[in-house]
Amino acid sequence: MQPVATAPCPDDNQLLAHLRSLREPQVMRGLVSHWPVVKAAKTSNEALVDYLSRFDNNTVVDSLHLEARHDGRMFYNENMDGFNFSRKRQPFMSALHALLERQHSAEADSLYVGSTSVAHCLPGFLTENPIALEEADPLATLWIGNKSRIAAHYDAPDNLICVTAGKRKVTLFPPEQVENLYVGPLHITPAGQAVSLVDFHAPDFEKFPRFREALAQAQTVELEPGDALFIPSMWWHHIEGQQSLNMLVNFWWRDAPAHLGRSENALYHALLALKALPDKERQAWQAMFNFYVFGQDQDRFDHIPDALKGPLGEQSEQTQRQFRAWLANHLKQ
C-alpha cells in the first residue's frame, strides 16, 4: 500500500474546480479545521454532543447495533443470509447519548448512525459549518458512531469526506481492482452497495489470493478532525472509525445530468441479458459495447445524419425520455 497524495488546501473559490480536476484520491489536511463542530469535538465528546444538540429537531434516525465481539465490523452473518448487526429507529440525540455512555468502555458494543441527511437531521448546521461546493449542489450526509469497520464498497458520485471528530482510517482501491476485491452479492448488501468479502484486519489469502494484488495497488490514509479526503467516483473504499466517538460529514455530487439516471441499472440489465450467453456471443457483445459505449473515437457516428442519431448523438433530456420509452416497449417483448 502507498499513502494517499496530500495537497495544500485550495482557496474557497478554487475548491470545486480543484476537486473536479482530480482523478485519484487526495487528502487536504485541515480543510475544515475552522468549523465550529471540529473545535467542539477537539474539546471533548460531551462538547461535541452539546454542540450538535443546538441543531436537533427531534429527528428519528436509523442506527446500527453490533455486539462488541465483532470488533466493529458491520458485515453479513455467518451464513450470509442476513447481517451481523441489528437496525433500530431512535431519536438522533438518544443515539448520541448512548455513545457517550459507552465512551469509556473498551468492550462496548458498536453503535453507528450513517448516511443521514444533515439538512434533515441538523437544520442550520451547514450554515455554521459551510463548504464552498454550492455550484455542485451536493448532498451532505453525516456518519457518527464509536468503533466501526465499513467493508470496501464504491459510490457512483464524487465524494468529499470531512472528519469532524475522532479518527478514520481509509483504504482505497482504483475501480479496476474490482476483480481482486472478491465482491459479494449485488442484491443482498449490508447498506445498498455491494461490498468486498475480505476481512481487512485478517485477510484470508488462501480463500482470497488475488487480494494481495489489490493491496499492492491500494492507497491508505489516517484522518483527524479537520481533515478532508476526496474520493473520486467509483473508487472502492474501506473506512474504519477508530475512537470512542467518530463523526464525519460528507458531500456527494455528480457532474453528469440527473436525467441519465443510475448507471448501475445498465449493469444489472446486462447481467440478465448477456451473462448466460454462449462465450462467443458474449465476446461479440463485448466488442459491441466497446464500440457503442466505451469507444473514444468521437467521430465514429459521423456517417449518420444528426436527425437520425437518436441515443448515438447528443443525449438531451427529451432524447432520454424518448428512448427510455422505446426501451420499455422492447423489454415487454
TrEMBL record:
PROSITE patterns: JMJC. It holds the Pfam family Cupin_8. Residues 111-268 form the JmjC domain. It comes from the Bacteria. This is Cupin-like domain-containing protein.
